[in-house]
Amino acid sequence: MFEEYSSRLRHRYPNLQITGENFPPPQINSYIASVLGVLKLVLIGMIVTGTNPFTALNMDTPNIWLWATENKVSVVKYLKHSPFVVGNLQSELTRPLF
Asked: Which domain holds residue 45?
């Protein structure tokens, strides 16, 4: 990521000196991103199969869950194409070195 930005800047401003490197994301962000990815897959699986976890927990089924199971295609498409949170947590951080 850093190399991409620095090459764009060097192309536009040839006299600009850029020093820096890519840094991996903090460990906690990687852990949270992994957990969210697994939870998303479990959620997709439960919606597709029609499994209702609320009955096992002796809870009333929320309306959002009923809507999600009735509109499986839309919900799965949305969940499949919305990796923004996980992607942001896993992205590398770019820090300049002075």
From this structure: 25-91
Residues 33/89, Cβ–Cβ less than 8 Å: yes
Longest dimension (CA), the chain: 67
- Tell me whether residue 37 is in a domain: yes
What local confidence, expressed as pLDDT, does residue 88 receive? 66
Asked whether residue 11 is assigned to any structural domain, the reply reads no
Task: Specify if 75 maps to a domain.
Answer: yes
- Residue tagged 């820090």 (tokens): 95
The pLDDT tens digits of the residues spanning 4-36 come to 888 888 888 888 888 877 777 778 877 888 888
- 59 in any annotated domain: yes
How far is residue 84's CA from residue 82's CA, in Å, rounded to a whole number? Answer: 6
- CA 73: distance to chain centroid? 20
